[in-house]
Specification:
The chain is about 45% helix and about 30% strand. By secondary structure, the protein is an alpha+beta fold.
Length: about 110
C-alpha cells in the first residue's frame, strides 16, 4: 500500500510541475503569428493539399501530405487578394496562378 501511495504522490508532483511550467514558463515562440496568414488552400486528394501562406510580403506555396510538408515555390505578394474567401472569386489571379503552378510542376517533373 505504501508503494502505491508513493507512486500516486510522485505522479501528482509531476502533473503539478507540468501544469506550473505550462502556465508560467516564458513563451518560446516570441509572441503572435501576426506576420503569418493563410491565403488559400486546395485539396488535391483525401489527405494532400496545396496551401498558399503569406509571410511578410512573400507568398509561399506549400505542398502538404501526411508526414511531409514541402515548400514548392515562393512568389511576391499579390495585391487585391484578401483571404481564402476572395481567392476563389479572383478569377484572373486564380487562372494565372494555376498556369504558373502547372508550369512549375512540369519543370520539376522534367528534371
Amino acid at each position: 500500500m505504501q508503494t502505491i501511495l508513493a507512486l500516486v504522490l510522485v505522479l501528482a508532483v509531476l502533473a503539478g510541475l507540468a501544469w506550473f511550467l505550462k502556465r508560467f514558463a516564458p513563451k518560446m515562440m516570441g509572441g503572435s503569428n501576426a506576420n503569418l496568414r493563410l491565403v488559400g488552400a486546395l485539396n488535391l486528394g483525401a489527405r494532400e493539399r496545396i496551401v498558399v501562406v503569406e509571410v511578410g510580403n512573400q507568398w509561399i506555396v506549400v505542398g502538404a501530405s501526411p508526414g511531409r510538408i514541402n515548400a514548392l515555390a515562393t512568389m511576391p505578394r499579390q495585391e487585391g487578394v484578401e483571404g481564402t474567401a476572395t481567392v476563389a472569386a479572383a478569377t484572373p489571379s486564380a487562372g494565372s496562378f494555376s498556369d504558373w503552378l502547372k508550369n512549375t510542376i512540369d519543370k520539376r517533373n522534367a528534371k
